[in-house]
DNA sequence: CTGTTAGCGCCTTCAA
DNA sequence: TTGAAGGCGCTAACAG
């Protein structure tokens, strides 16, 4: 195997010292333009690329960002092949931003429920020494993890977390998104709008419900508590909640579900009862994973900007590592509402 | 930031030398069981995890496997949100296998068409110094890349490549898969089975067509060359090919498409012409990305075992790095045929 | 502005 | 069976 080209070769080629090359590579100050040019020419000629491993040894940066996902949920999503694309979207936002600054992103799966969360995270960090971490739900609000990172002094971003606290909180305005979704239905003429909640384990669940409530309040419309259905993000819970809602004496004419799977469940239950979507029952979902684009009819959905959030997270972490000051402690990324065929005015 | 625990701390804790700890970590020979035990206790107590960066500096292993994907195609898949899950499946197979041996997997996007492929790959390697590479199509058969890796002496695996050559070739039996898909249609009673090819840029395209041909040959059935439609893996090409096939004087009663997108296109075109799937036209697709499970009717599809292939690739690379001998130069992973609602006997 | 020195944490080689 | 010395490629701290 051909020996790799190192900073030494570049130094020799350019006729300068090791350190000068290092300065040029890291855009350090105090190098004459003429020397910079000579070094850069040598770098290009030799095709030199610094070794990340060595950089992390000498200095204190690894140029690595680590994303922590929930083990069970991620594997479940992969195995079931239900078309969720969280990881893809994260990679798209995060990897591309990392590449812009010579960083790399690496994924790790961590078991939230394990008694050893802390040890697991610590092990991953010890092995790779990332410059920053990106936490996804439910890790984002796990004090065991955030506490550890604070103790280690490692910068981190919490995706989809609106709670203030340590690290950067990156989120969309979940409450407003729910509100906008409900307003969309109200504008269509619906007055009884059911809501299927998410699992209590996730902070967003309560926030989304709050948006549903506020949409009614803002317009001075009454809200029947019976229209709140109990879900936990699974398809089955969506089926149960929908069945309960449709069994009401005065059933809803529209349902907002806290995620796509439960919205699909609502669609299935509606179909089973001979209800036509959207005319007998409008459905709006949350997240907009690819699968809802292929349902019949395609689903109106709140678009969760995962790629943008991850990009923002990577951006902040990279800048934090470069000691940029005055960074915001939280970022709110705009959400979208994709209006498709599952929402329409109610039958009059 | 609390200083990280290093091999030195462990050595001190266990009352042995640095080197002995290193031997225990790496399961080296010549250490007394009693000492091993003492060291292991110290490791556990201190929560020591070796730094990958340091390991790669001193020794020669980085415990990193690098997967190279085509930049444009991957970003296109992520952006379009069409529900393909190549990357997820690769991560599932690769990451989990890596984790079993303390390895990590990292993704890189490489532009195949760029004049600088070689430089791009070389840069990624120089930065991360992976112990092995996993190439995905179309990189798998790119001599610029494989040639470079051979020169560098880096082990690599070529996913979905059946061509013998350098590196490990990991594939499913593409020809047999196509043949089995066609036989499924023949068994249903179809006699005019159209085929939509993939892009010539991918070696599998020709191989899949060969399976279609062989299925007929094996049963002594004639094959009308007009039944071969020209595709390039895009939805649009699938539409064109289907339109051409259906315009034949004697149109096919079934179509096998070389990937899911083209199969969906066939379904769309059929619907637009008032043809009912599967009764007027049966459709079978290749790959089985999640989206085809949600089409109406759900698509019968050849299941491409991406996770298994990536797992096999990671497994071979890890073993190769550990100098295990007698490794196979190629691995054929079993494929599947998911029979769903898009295939049925033709109208008699 | 530029060069020199001293590690970073680990593994390889050699000596005990 | 164990330990000590040297170096991997780079950067921080200090000299010049």
UniProtKB/TrEMBL annotation, chains A, B:
PROSITE patterns: HTH_LACI_2. It holds the Pfam family LacI. InterPro entries: HTH_LacI (IPR000843), LacI/GalR-like_sensor (IPR046335), Lambda_DNA-bd_dom_sf (IPR010982), Peripla_BP_I (IPR028082). CDD domains: HTH_LacI, PBP1_SalR. It comes from the Bacteria. One of its GO terms (molecular function) is DNA binding. Residues 5-59 form the HTH lacI-type domain. Keywords: DNA-binding, Transcription, Transcription regulation. This is LacI family DNA-binding transcriptional regulator.
